[in-house]
């Protein structure tokens, strides 16, 4: 071997270390300037022309302001070329999410937040869009026409929704993320965040939003994906150098990646027996449990690898009374549920919203988990969980006898007959059926058998004729601002219809 080769290797590593050190000590402006230069060079390369395309189709979303039977203010307006941009203002041809501000979380029907939700997870809604061609993304532009600033996270998926053969592995990668910030302007803008490069092509992009700081509804007009058909030259030469890794916005990736540890590192098989646990041996068991209550789920996963004593505390079922798995939707699968199963025998609040889609969670995996962990469940959040089917709701009705709060919002793939199982949940007090295919027969059965029901959300339920529904239900009605209050025996029921105008017809 030539003596020059080892020297080149050493010099290459030295150059890489100097580059990382310089980037970490540089100002944020210097880093952005450097990153801008690199991106500019990759775009102007004649060997790999850039492809620019608008969204072809909206394939999934969590909510929208409009009706399912209309195009006004619905997420479907994000597909195709812009309808409004660069104009500013309130236009029905744009995509609008269901809420803004904090009033939604402060109204009497709002549910309490989950404990142990990582501060890095701020997403409230999402929309997923497909594009015609798979590309290595170089830029994602969001055309915002009214009250911009809601988009806080952009992700890319390795799966091709138009491929006849499903991939063996589906990966989500964060292209850009930022904490919610208030934009003091309501005019239209072309939002162009600087994204990081990924090592797979994509034609499935996901936007996540947080509207809590907005003064009014945000309106989106179109999404533009820039990319190259072949892997950019920059990725091939400097795959180890990621300028976005040096920014402050990588906070939320850490928790997401740690979900892999649930599958691999929560076992005590490799933990050795030490002579002493130090000062932890002097602390009461309850005090250590109280301290660990402040840790997030990934932090518990890390801590469980330190010693047998802390592993025992981290696996105590009392640590999992409230279990919020929504922040880890991109990683959570059947294997994750299997490893959590032994620790969740006492779980009372469980949040599986947004999880399990595209084959991550199977019906059998979900059923096995509930058969072990469902007996104490009081609250179950399953918003946008598209793996659910008739068998899943049957398992819920049989394994969760104490369930009081069930959220099935935007589970639009559930068949109408599945909702009949809900009537078996006699302790139910709160039921969210927003954007589902529940039918009138199932609703009447639920109202007849769930005598303790206090809050029922039926927004955008296209299979229910609200006026006909109430003509068959005799209790008195009162209609303020789209809400209907009914006396059900001795229970006060709040039923929310929004945006439903049929209720006011004569």
Automatic annotation (TrEMBL):
Q: Which PROSITE patterns did the record assign?
A: FBOX
Could you list this entry's UniProt keywords, alphabetically sorted: Leucine-rich repeat, Ubl conjugation pathway
User: Superkingdom of this entry's organism?
Assistant: Eukaryota
Entries under Pfam families matching the protein: F-box-like
Occurrences of domain F-box (ranges): 277-332
| Entry keyword Electron transport | no
Specify whether 4Fe-4S is a keyword of the entry: no
The identity of this protein, by name, is F-box and leucine-rich repeat protein 4 (Predicted), isoform CRA_b
Please name the source species.
Rattus norvegicus
